[in-house]
Give the backbone structure.
Amino acid sequence: MDNTFSTIWQRIRENADKPFLMPNGREFHYVIEGEKLRFSCSSQFVEKATITEALQSMPCEGFQQLPRHLKPRNALWTLLNDTRIYQRPKFTDYQPNEFWERRSLG
């Protein structure tokens, strides 16, 4: 599986405006603006360098394990833990795609 940053950035671009679901059930999406992205749950722009740094901390079991200066940590963790972005069976027992599908069907 190709999980180089350039491939992950391409996957991030391909999934812009699609719904993501945090473990607490909060839904968000993001938009790409140039070389930055902005989560619907935050007014801050996230630089590619921030995503690169967060990716170095993965896998981790929760957003609390990402460095504190990375904001918004909960959205970054959810994004990078999603199998649409990082091609791996799963980082943790929590799988956002499966949770999203169960929520949509229920």
Notes: The mean pLDDT is 83. Residues 5-14 form the longest helix (10 residues). Residues 5-105 form one domain. The longest strand covers residues 30-33.
